[in-house]
Design goal:
heterodimer; A: alpha/beta; five-stranded parallel beta sheet; B: alpha+beta; Beta-Lactamase; five-stranded antiparallel beta sheet; five-stranded mixed beta sheet; 20 helices; rod-shaped
Chain lengths: 150, 687
C-alpha cells in the first residue's frame, strides 16, 4: 500500500519559525518520518504534480495529507487549495489549513473551496503541539482513505 | 351715471287714482240719471258736477290708468311690451279727447256761448232736461284744467317736453287749488262762468297728482321721489307749504267775519302769520340742512382720511399696483410699479401695455432691457383681454430683464374690477418682488447638489478607511500572532531542551516570556473581537431573552465545575436586537459575574428585569468583589481594569465590547457597585 516514493505529510509553510515549531511538534508525536516541506505555493504544486525539479514524483502518488498555511509567497494557500480541489487527480487528497488567521472570510472561503479541516495555530506552544499531534494521528491513522491510491 | 332709486311704485299710485276717478264719475253720472241731487251737488245749493265733466273725468281716469300701465318700470318684464303699447295708444286717445273737450268748451266760452250748448254738443240730452236750465254746466275753470291735463298726459311719455308737462299740470293744479280756496273762503269765483263742483275740484287735484306720477324720473317728481337729502326735504316741506297758508287765510277770514278785527288788521295778521309760518319752516329747514351738512362734512373728512390712508398704503408698500380700464389702458400705477422700470406715471396712464413700452423707448428709459420686455407687453394685453372675457384671475411668475443683465423675479396676480352693476369694468394687478426668494431657492438647490456630492465623496472616503481598517485587523490577526507563537514556542523549546542546565532564575525568566507572549495573544484576540463587533452590521430581530440567557448560562456553567453558584433568573421579556451581538453581551456580563464571585461561598448571581418609564432595563447582579464607584467612569474603556491581574485575570476588553454593542443598539449601560459587596450591571436596548 505504501509506495516507496509516497510521502505521508506535505507541509507547506514559508515562516521558518513556524516550520521549526511544527516539525518539532510532529517529531514529538513520532510523525516526522516522511514529511516533505514546500516553502511556497508554487513549490508545493511542483511537488504534487511532479514538475520541474520533482520529476521523480508522480501525481498518482500524492501525499496522504497536506498541512497548508494561508499566506504564502507566489501562490497563496487559497489558490493552491482551489487548484488541488479542481483537479480530479488531486481532489481526494485531504487538505488541512494550519494558519494564524481567525478571520471569518478566510474560514468561509476555505470551506467553500473544499478544505477538509481548518485549524487556527494557538499562540501557546503546548497547545500548538497538542493540536499538531492530534492532527497527525487523525489524518494518518484514524482517517480512512478511499481505496485505489489517490 | 347714477340712476334714481324710486322709494315707491308711482305707476301704481297713478293707476289707483285713475280707478278712483272713474268710479267717482260713474257714481255721479248714475246719481244724475237717477235724479239724486246729493250725488251731483254733495251739499244742496252748491254747484253740481256737470255730466260732461263726469264723462271727461272718466276719460281722464282711463287715460291715467292706461298710461301708468304703459309706464316703463325698473322691473324688466319683457312680455309687457305688447300690452303696454296698446295701453299707450288707448291712454293717448283718451288724453287727446280730454284735451279736445276741455279746449272746445273753452273756445265756445270765448265765442260767447256761456250756456250749456257745449255740453249738449258732446253729450246729447233730452230737450226737456236741457231746457229746464237747472242742469249744472261744465265750469270754465274745469274746462281749462281739462285741456291742461289732457295735453300733459299726451306728452307725459316724452322726456324733452318734461318742462311743459309740469307747467300744464301745475296750471291745472293751481286752478284746482283756487277752486278749493273758494270753498274755504266763499265769495264769487275768480274765474268767471260757474263755480267748479267740490268733488270736481278734488277729483281734478287727484288727477293732477296722478299725472305727475306718469313722469316719475323728471323734474319735480324726480326730486320728490329721490332718497337724497333734497328729496327728503321737499317731501317734508311740501305738505305744510300747501296747507299752511290756506289754513292761515281761512282763520283770518273766520276771525274777521266773527267781528274780531277789520280788513286791515286781518290782512296784517295774515301777513304776519304767514311770515312767522314760513320763517319757522325756513329755520327748521335750515337746522336740518345744517345738521346734514355737518354730518356730510364729517363723512367727507373720514373719506378723505381713508383715501389718504389708502393712498399712502398703496404708494408705500413694496408691491407694484396697476389698474386698467375696459380698453386695457392704465388708469392707475403706484410708485413701486414705476420704480420697477425707472419710469414715471406719464409713461403708463392712458396707454396700453404696448403703447407704454413705446413711450419708455421714446424717453430711452434705460433701467429695463426693453427688447426683452416686448413679449411681456404683449402678454399684458393678452391677460387683460382674457380677464375681460372670462373674469378669472391670473396668477403667474414673471421675469424682468434689467439693462445691466440682472433679473428680477415677480409674482404677479391679475384680477377683474367690477362696477356697481357687477360688470367687468377693467383689470387690476399686483406685482411682488420675489427675486430674493428665487435666488435663495436656487442657492438651496445648489447647496443640496453640493452636499450630495460631498456626502458621496465622504462615503467613498469612509469606505476606503473601512477597507484599510479591515486590512489592518487582518494583518494584526495573522502577522502579529506568528512572531508571538515563535516567542512562546522557542522559549518553551529552550526550557525543554536546556531547562535542566539553567539556574532556577533563568527558568523563571523563560517562563515569564512564555506567559507574556500568551497574554499578548489573548489581548490580540480580544481586540480583534472588539473590532469585529464594532463594524459588523446590527441585524435586528425579535428574540426570546430568557432562552438566550439560559443558553449562555449552560455554556458558561460547564467551565465552573466544582463551584457552588446560587443562580436567580427573573422573568425576562422578549427584546429586539442582533442575536449574535447580544449573546456576546450576556456572555461577557455573566462570565464577569462568575469570575468576580470566585472567592465567595455561596456565590450569588441574579439576572433580572425592571421597567422604568419607557425603557426595559435588564440587569446582572453578583455578590462578588465589586469595585469602587469612583472608578466607574473607567469601567467600559478598552484595556481598562479595576482589579490586578493576580486577583482576576482578563484583558479589559469584555465590558468595552458590552458597551459598544449596547450603544450600537441605541441603548445604554451602567453599573452600581461597592468594594467587596458585589456589582450590578444594567443595560437598556433603546426604545
Amino acid at each position: 500500500m505504501n509506495h516507496p516514493n509516497e510521502i505521508e505529510i506535505l507541509l507547506v509553510e514559508d515562516n521558518p519559525e513556524d516550520l521549526e515549531l511544527t516539525l518539532r511538534a510532529l517529531r514529538k508525536g513520532n510523525l516526522a518520518n516522511r514529511i516533505e516541506i514546500a516553502r511556497d505555493g508554487a513549490e508545493a504544486l511542483e511537488m504534487i504534480f511532479g514538475q520541474n525539479g520533482y520529476a521523480e514524483r508522480s501525481v498518482e502518488h500524492g501525499p496522504r495529507v497536506i498541512f497548508l498555511d494561508l499566506k504564502l509567497p507566489k501562490i497563496d494557500g487559497l489558490e493552491l487549495l482551489q487548484r488541488l480541489k479542481n483537479d480530479p487527480r488531486t481532489q481526494r487528497i485531504p487538505v488541512v489549513m494550519l494558519t494564524s488567521s481567525k478571520e471569518q472570510k478566510d474560514i468561509v472561503e476555505s470551506y467553500k473551496l473544499g478544505v477538509n479541516s481548518y485549524i487556527v495555530k494557538p499562540v501557546n506552544f503546548e497547545r500548538f503541539v497538542a493540536a499538531v499531534q492530534e492532527l497527525g494521528v487523525y489524518w494518518l491513522l484514524l482517517n480512512q482513505r478511499p481505496a485505489g491510491g489517490t | 351715471m347714477i340712476s334714481l332709486v324710486y322709494p315707491k311704485r308711482p305707476d301704481r299710485v297713478a293707476k289707483a287714482i285713475g280707478l278712483l276717478i272713474v268710479s267717482l264719475a260713474v257714481i255721479v253720472l248714475a246719481g244724475a240719471a237717477l235724479g239724486n241731487e246729493t250725488l251731483v251737488r254733495v251739499v244742496p245749493h252748491w254747484p253740481g258736477m256737470a255730466r260732461l265733466t263726469a264723462l271727461t273725468l272718466i276719460l281722464s281716469g282711463v287715460s291715467l290708468w292706461c298710461l301708468a300701465h304703459a309706464l316703463p318700470t325698473h322691473t324688466t318684464d319683457s312680455n309687457r311690451s305688447g300690452k303696454s303699447s296698446r295701453a299707450l295708444i288707448v291712454g293717448r286717445i283718451a288724453a287727446a279727447l280730454v284735451a279736445v273737450i276741455g279746449f272746445s268748451r273753452n273756445c265756445l266760452w270765448i265765442g260767447g256761448a256761456t250756456d250749456g250748448s257745449l255740453d249738449a254738443l258732446w253729450l246729447p240730452l233730452p230737450e226737456s232736461i236741457v231746457a229746464s236750465g237747472s242742469l249744472p254746466r261744465m265750469a270754465l275753470a274745469t274746462s281749462i284744467s281739462f285741456w291742461c291735463l289732457g295735453c300733459a298726459m299726451l306728452i307725459a311719455s316724452r322726456r324733452r317736453f318734461s318742462g311743459i308737462f309740469q307747467l300744464f299740470v301745475m296750471m291745472a293744479g293751481g286752478i284746482g287749488l283756487l277752486s278749493l280756496s273758494r270753498y274755504l273762503y266763499g265769495g264769487a269765483p275768480l274765474i268767471p262762468n260757474a263755480q267748479m263742483a267740490i268733488h270736481t275740484t278734488l277729483a281734478l287735484l287727484f288727477v293732477c297728482a296722478g299725472t305727475m306720477c306718469l313722469r316719475p324720473d323728471g323734474g319735480m317728481m324726480a326730486l320728490l321721489l329721490s332718497d337724497t337729502e333734497g328729496g327728503k326735504m321737499a317731501r317734508w316741506l311740501l305738505p305744510p307749504a300747501l296747507v299752511g297758508p290756506l289754513l292761515v287765510g281761512w282763520l283770518r277770514l273766520w276771525g274777521q267775519r266773527a267781528g274780531w278785527y277789520e280788513t286791515e288788521a286781518g290782512l296784517s295778521l295774515f301777513a304776519i302769520s304767514n311770515v312767522v309760518f314760513f320763517c319757522t319752516l325756513i329755520l327748521m329747514t335750515g337746522v336740518l340742512l345744517h345738521r346734514g351738512d355737518l354730518e356730510r362734512r364729517k363723512v367727507e373728512e373720514t373719506l378723505r382720511e381713508s383715501q389718504a390712508l389708502y393712498h399712502s398704503l398703496v404708494e408705500q408698500m413694496p408691491v407694484g399696483v396697476f389698474r386698467k380700464d375696459e380698453q386695457g389702458r392704465f388708469v392707475f400705477v403706484n410708485s413701486w410699479f414705476c420704480n420697477l422700470s425707472g419710469s414715471k406715471p406719464k409713461h403708463f396712464l392712458g396707454l396700453t401695455s404696448v403703447e407704454s413700452l413705446r413711450a419708455l423707448k421714446a424717453d430711452s428709459i434705460a433701467m429695463l432691457d426693453l427688447e426683452k420686455t416686448e413679449s411681456l407687453a404683449a402678454s399684458g394685453i393678452e391677460h387683460h383681454d382674457q380677464i375681460m372675457r372670462t373674469g378669472q384671475r391670473i396668477e403667474l411668475d414673471e421675469e424682468r430683464f434689467l439693462a445691466d443683465g440682472r433679473r428680477r423675479y415677480l409674482h404677479v396676480v391679475k384680477s377683474p374690477i367690477y362696477d356697481a352693476e357687477g360688470r367687468i369694468a377693467g383689470s387690476q394687478g399686483t406685482l411682488i418682488d420675489v427675486t430674493e426668494r428665487k435666488l435663495a431657492e436656487e442657492e438651496v438647490r445648489h447647496l443640496n447638489a453640493d452636499l450630495e456630492q460631498r456626502v458621496a465623496k465622504r462615503t467613498a472616503e469612509l469606505e476606503a478607511v473601512n477597507k484599510e481598517l479591515e486590512a489592518f485587523s487582518y494583518s494584526v490577526s495573522h502577522d502579529l500572532r506568528a512572531p508571538l507563537r515563535a516567542v512562546n514556542g522557542f522559549a518553551i523549546m529552550a526550557l525543554e531542551d536546556f531547562g535542566d542546565g539553567l539556574p532556577p532564575e533563568g527558568r523563571r525568566q523563560l517562563k515569564k516570556i512564555c506567559d507574556g507572549s500568551e497574554r499578548m495573544g489573548q489581548l490580540i484576540d480580544d481586540l480583534l473581537t472588539f473590532a469585529r463587533l464594532s463594524r459588523q452590521p446590527v441585524n435586528q430581530q425579535d428574540m426570546n431573552t430568557g432562552r438566550l440567557v439560559q443558553d449562555v448560562l449552560t455554556e458558561l456553567q460547564s467551565q465552573q465545575e466544582g463551584r457552588s453558584i446560587d443562580l436567580h433568573i427573573g422573568d425576562l421579556p422578549a427584546c429586539r436586537g442582533d442575536i449574535a451581538l447580544l449573546k456576546q453581551v450576556w456572555i461577557n456580563l455573566l462570565s464577569n459575574a462568575f469570575k468576580y464571585t470566585r472567592g465567595k461561598d455561596p456565590a450569588v448571581v441574579e439576572v433580572g428585569y425592571a421597567h422604568d418609564g419607557n425603557a426595559d432595563i435588564y440587569f446582572v447582579r453578583d455578590n462578588g468583589a465589586g469595585f469602587d464607584m469612583q472608578y466607574a467612569n473607567k469601567l467600559f474603556g478598552v484595556f481598562q481594569r479595576l482589579h490586578r491581574a493576580e486577583e482576576f485575570e482578563g484583558t479589559g476588553v469584555g465590558l468595552a465590547i458590552v458597551q459598544r454593542v449596547i450603544h450600537r443598539h441605541g441603548g445604554r449601560v451602567w453599573a452600581t457597585a461597592a468594594p467587596g459587596k458585589g456589582a450590578t450591571f444594567y443595560f437598556t436596548l433603546g426604545n
